[in-house]
Amino acid sequence: MAGELRAAGVEGGAELGRRWMRGNAKIDHTYAEGQALSGLMRTVEKTFAAVCPGITQPLRVRAKTGKPPRGRDKSIADATRFPSFSLALPTTPPRRLPRWQRVKTQLSRRGKSLFPPSLVASPQNRSQSKPPSTADEESSDAEVDDTVTQAVSTSRNAAPDASNLPPIHDIPAIFSDLVSRVPEIKAVAEHLEGRKMRVATMCSGTESPLLALDLIRRSIVEHYGVNMEFDHVFSCEIEPFKQAYIERNFKPPLLFRDVCELGDSHATTAYGSLAPVPGDVDLLVAGTSCVDYSNLNNEKQDIDDNGESGRTFRGMMSWVKNHQPPLVILENVCSAPWDRVAQYFEKIGYSADYLRVDTKNFYIPHTRTRVYLLAVNQRHSSLPGKWKDWIGKLKRPASSTLDAFLLPSDDPRIHQAREKLVSESYNGVDRRTGRTDWGRCESRHQRGRLEEELGLKRPLTGWEEGGYCKMPDFAWNDWGVGQVERVWDLMDISLLRSAKKGVDPSYKTQVWNLSQNVDRAIGSNKVGICPCLTPSMIPYITNRGGPMVGLEALSMQGLPVDELLLTRETEDQLADLAGNAMSTTVVGACIMAALVVGRKLLKEGDDDATYESKNDVAMDVDDEDEDETMDVDRAPEKDVPVEERISGEDQLVEKPLDLASTAETRLTALLQKAQQSARLCECEGRKDITDRQLNRCVDCGSSSCVKCGGRPEHNFEAIDVNANTRLPPLAFAKELKATLPMSLSLANVSRELLDSLREETGVTIPEKRWGSWCEAVLRVAAHELRFVEPKRQEIWAATYQSPVAYLELQLNPQQPEWRLFARPEGDEPANSEIRKLLESPIGRFVCEDGLFSGRWDFALPYTTSIQITISGSEPVPSWEQKLGLQGKEFRDRMVNSRLEIDVDAKDLDHFDRDISGAYTLLDKCGTANSALHKKATDARDAHLPPLFLLLDPTRCGDPVDDSFVISISKGRYEYGETRPIICQLQSKWRQSDTDEEEHIRCQIPYKWMKASDVQLAPVAGHEAHYAVPGDQLDISVSMEACRSANALLVCRVPLLDQAGPEWPRNAWKEVDKVHERVTFKALAWLIERIRNVGGRFSDWQDAELPGAHVNCERCAPTAPNLLWTKVKKRVVAIEDTAQAGQYERDLKRRPAPFVTQLKLDKNGVGVVRIGVNVASLMHRAMSRLPTAGRKGKVSVSWRLTMDFLPAAKIKMPKFKLSSNRHDSLHAQPPSFKIPLRPEQLRSLTWMLAQESPNAPPFIEEEISEAIMEPLGWRAEGRAQRPVHIRGGVLADEVGYGKTAITLGLIDCTAKEVEKDFRKMQDMKGKIPVKATLVVVPPHLTRQWGSEVKKFAGKRFKVVELATATNINSLTIEEVQEADIVVVASNLFHSSVYLANLEALAAAGSLPLQDGRYFNARLGNVLDSLRNQVDRLRDDGANAVMDKILEGRKLGRYIIAALSYWLTPCVDEDESNFFVPTKRLKGKSYREVAEVAESGKKQPPKVEPKVKTKAKKSAVPDSIPANASVSPRTGLVMEVVIPVRKASAASSATSGTSEPEEDSDTRPKRRRVIRKVMSSDESAGSDEDKPRVKRGKKAAPAKRLTKKKAVDSEYEASSAEESGSDAGSLAESSDEDIPKKKAGKVEAKAKAKAKASSATQ
Ligand SMILES: [Zn+2]
Ligand SMILES: [Zn+2]
Ligand SMILES: [Zn+2]
């Protein structure tokens, strides 16, 4: 695919830059695919011209082979294959070199290296670095052909930062650059002016097109002053988490679920409602599913197949056909059938063309090839072709390495992601790769190790069978242990492979694809460029020691992650989003090109006609309808204007704000404290102090905790933290911030001063270099440096910045100093000299007596080169040998462990510090290639930090150019930071075991020059003011209060001309959640001093709750109802989709707890105001308090913590059992025969107190909290309600006599209870009883009865309920008379009990399994049961029966609705209760029902029967309306309710009146009731008791497993039983019988009522 360009040799071109011309070497240059021929030519010419500017003529380019890239019927590969060329360069060397080339040449002659090593790498070394591949489609897939690899050229391997374009990695800046290159876009914006462009997206996953469009819009405003607004018409996404992402971040008016439906007039939205599919769209961008096209998918499916891709594609096409959008852009993998796609478009009157693009050619260092297609609504149009040309023109290779796109390792988002990754990897260890696959690939790995002579060691992970893994200390071991054997071994093999080339990958930025096979290439072919990210990939970053996190992956796709809300996605989901995303830069370029070429196809701004009407396509949606749906979401987002969203500024007190002041702290004291609070282990981060044992290496001085340390080994010794007390880091940070001024500047710097310094040194610095360096310094001096943050590391630091500079205070205890770095101007090319120069500091302030007393040194840009002598001795095994490499060059390799460095006395004064002396190899102490040496300290430098000699590799440069340096710092550096070095050894020097003296050149990169006039001083003259609350803050909780936040902090500062981009001009602007971090960092200098408004509000502040409170819908929108649906045989809860949509939107519109607003006045005064909406927090808290049955008054309060830090671990207070040792003895219970022991009497006292009406209430509490992380503020709103619950837990030991004490309690309170009971009014849904309900484990049921007798004789009447059978024989009367009801706890779980409950409650059936659905249904059933109780009392048994019959229908309805399939589940025990014999069936049953209904003079006796038998599936149609099946037992149940002989009228009146009449004395037993029993009982007997007994003994239920059988059985029994049932009806009309039954039912009702109250 890649074209090949061959630049033939230049004779005698000696010093023309090694890359291009080395003698007559042949140089190969391979181009990336997809580059247009003309572009390729131009690039060749340009490059050549740059190298040889003097030569214009003799350049001949000749095409050798290859086919032109066209032809739709050719494969993609063909279409994008380019011809190769040979390029003949002139043989005359050029006369003049470009500036950088000359400098380079001079330096090279003197053996120095000034340029990024990648620039000056020599070709023969290139072959050692990563083999590039020609296959760039999904580079993870790339099979590398070795022969190709060898032939591939050198220049491909240059990292993006060797580019001669300015580096660029900020996504908005990228778009600004992109848009600035397309002035034609202005015409498009003007063309559309007057209306919004309408854009629709389908399956775009991350909605990259919208992000790109918005970035483009912003840039157009910036560059051309026109606003090209657009409307997002609809989105379509099928995956729920992506829907959530889209909804959260883009709020599309319509979010459809399935592309396949879009061809219709209406489609289902993500919320489940049906909405008209809108049209009149200018631009559609779609990335239809690529699941089926992906190479990884073996059975490729076609668009004509019914695979996912085919269906979605056709859905998209029918939408296009129906709505005729002028422009359509499609994106997909290269292997999709693009020619056919284009044909489809032609069929519907469009023209289409496509091309292949690679993300790395569009600003972002990410190899990702995709095909984009443009279809325009015009036949045989030339536009798609022009569009392709445009995209060619818009190409712009990445000029920043992938490091620039990664988050800094101390970014909190990295920590969060890491935690998520760790927990996800534990939960799903097998998910991605599978533990099990190790067995399959083990032999492959071993073969690889053998063939490549890698040895058997595991130097990176140290893994062992059984799941042990220990990565080096810098790495994410917590993530590492979650990986699988295959991954671990692959990591080790990869390290060993790298080590063979002399490279320690842990010190280079490489991305390894760990989901790849061991024999495939797992890295990128290009340095500094990320391999293609796929959803399933594990992208391991070698110098992080951990994976790229999801946010970074998104950032590698050009998503502005700072602007996105990515809070709820898992890391896996983020990886999925990123892996399937369109790169914004690519889709952005495609959109811009399409708009430019297709401008005339777009309607003008004042054109009202729809595209449909223009194209004569009927849109079969009536307008009215459409308008309605569009309006749904157009409700005003926030009804409160911005300036009113913060109120109460008048409550604040204004004070002056001093930004320049510093607290007087002595430097030594500050350093002391810095040391005490510094980080001793990586795991402590910025804020923590570990309580694990800490160790420090005796040799190198590094420290770590026992958990993190150990790799590298070091020479550890425990740190005695008791002897060296540690200070809390936050306390020190606070002190440091008080000590430092918030704004600094460099004073007394002038060009004259700088020039005089140069003269003083006497060295010659090239004028050009000197000039640009001086400019940088003067630029720095003109801007004030503003405080950013204190940084806790192994040593503390504090940072300041200005738009042009960066200042860091290093609190090194032995050498505290400030270092000042200038920022190169943005348009400097990545490889420019000044950029390289400015990686070094431009100056430093060495603290002597205080932070601001000392001396200023400039680092003049002059590199001194000096020859030093190194002699080595005492060889020890080399790094490679210790890694176990088996190649013969490694097996026995030794290196000297002692080095003696000699510097000529005359050269000594060039050094900042004397480097000569003896160096010892500390090969247990890590650093790159385990090559750390430490200089033995002597008297001269004992007071200074120790010196180290170590290999200091560049992150992305050629490893061969990495050199050893001498520095006081051996640590790792973040991207963008540079190690302060004293000198750098020639890059060719490597460790060896030579015993000869080596003469090595060594460079001192800059020349320190003292400038005593220069000062680093606080900036005075900011007349800033701030206002904070006084001692009091009145906060209202009224329903209107939450409309605006209470002002807490208002700050005014004259910024004049130094206002940053964060300040909106002349209008209030609110900082939203996503921009919070960035904004507050920029404001830190202003707010840091005042953000601690004080601790006045850190205690709960009561707020007055006005009147009757209703739920605030603004702050706490009503949650959607739960519905139940069946998924794979399980019932699951789903939200009512329509309500859920509304709910989500309402949630989004809730008032923010914290509101931050910024404004820059006309007169240059910046105003920040921050408010907190405590009322909203209290409203939220109130909405969550439970309300059912609560009567207590709600009270609300709030508090505000100004120095809040989320705790790393939540420390729960220890739970303590209270003792009753000090309670007083209660008198013996009145009826007790056996006295209680004293300790029991004490418990009795306590229990009585708990039962007392005055017992202290339990406080129910809800807190709603909000955290403003950048400020460390936390606001909480609290709602409380007292709930009186009389009771407690008596937790005495076994055998202590808890039963006796409880009986004592019953005894002592019996009189009171009796009294209350007599006074008891009728209770709704319940029948009052005086008994104490005792729920016991089943085996203790009987014991309770005997205990009662033992202690209280016959004083108490006890009812024991061990099984459901006991309930069947129980009367309501018995329960009402009882003093104690003992019930076995398992009764409530019993199927029989629940079946009876279902039947009686008549509210449908209960589900079989416990869980949310069961609880929800149980709630309904219990509610209904209460109604039944009332009905029984008020309307009599007939009404109850009617209800039961009705309930059955309900049950069947529910069952049918759920299509609920049941498994037969009648166990032996249950069958004892439910005996299948004869049942009341069909006609006879109906008759009974009719009788009951009509309420004749001779009402039938109520005789409920539960009959059980058939599997539920048998039920539906064959069963009469009045039969139902218990899902629990799978039995068909029938109930007959005979009513006593009394007339219907009297029965009814007695039902209602009796309890009322008797209520003042004692409720009388109602006799009429019924019983739930099996029908065979009723058939067999007319007498109550015998019936019950028979029931118990009856035969087990028949279990029917087949539907057919059930049906027939059912019919048979129904026929058989009809007669006898009728008989039983007549028989049962006996007075005695119903009595009993009534009792039973009521008892049950009672028990249930209790159960229900218990469940609440
Ligand atoms: Zn640690
Ligand atoms: Zn060490
Ligand atoms: Zn509210």
TrEMBL record:
Keyword ATP-binding appears in the UniProt entry: yes
UniProt keyword annotations, A-Z: ATP-binding, Hydrolase, Methyltransferase, Nucleotide-binding, Transferase
Disordered: annotated segments: 60-79, 85-166, 1491-1525, 1542-1656
Sample GO molecular function, one term: ATP-dependent activity, acting on DNA
Biased composition (Low complexity): 1542-1553, 1611-1627
Regions of compositional bias (Acidic residues) in chain numbering: 135-146
Composition bias, Basic residues: 96-112, 1587-1603
UniProt biased composition (Polar residues): 121-132
Name recorded for this polypeptide: SNF2 N-terminal domain-containing protein
Species name: Rhodofomes roseus
Taxonomic path: Eukaryota, Fungi, Dikarya, Basidiomycota, Agaricomycotina
